[in-house]
Amino acid sequence: MTPHFKLSEFTCKCGCRMPASAQVAYERLARALEVLRAELGCPINVISGYRCHARNAAVGGAALSQHVIGAAVDIQVDGHTGETLAAVIEGLIALGKMPNGGIGTYPDRKLTCHYDLRKKPARWQS
Question: In CATH, what is the architecture of 7-125?
Answer without folding.
Answer: 2-Layer Sandwich (3.30)
